[in-house]
Design a protein that fits this description.
This protein has 87 residues and is an all-alpha fold. It has one domain: Alpha-Beta Complex (Aspartate Aminotransferase, domain 1), CATH 3.90.1150.10. The chain is built from 4 helices and no strands.
């Protein structure tokens, strides 16, 4: 669970998707990519901070034609979720 949210990243993603907000997991640490994993024999726990970020980061919508009212909706939805689930 996220420290201040009280729910996991994947639960946050599910809630945002339910509200029509397309989100994704964007960042994958280099040591977890197949090529580097095979070539250098990295284990997923070799870089704990990278892994922690990977397990907590969400990519929100970000593109040139994103409208102000869409941005406001994303912000309001995140605020609502945080208020509802925070400890």
């Amino acid at each position: 669970k996220s420290d201040s949210w009280g729910i996991t990243r994947n639960e946050i993603i599910d809630k945002l998707v339910e509200k029509g907000i397309g989100v994704s997991v964007h960042y994958k640490p280099i040591h977890m990519l197949d090529y580097y994993h095979r070539k250098f024999k990295y284990k997923s726990n070799d870089f704990p901070r990278s892994k922690a970020l990977f397990n907590s980061v969400i990519s929100l919508p970000l593109y040139p034609n994103l409208l102000d009212n869409e941005i406001d909706y994303i912000i309001a939805t995140l605020n609502d979720l945080h208020t509802r689930y925070s400890k």
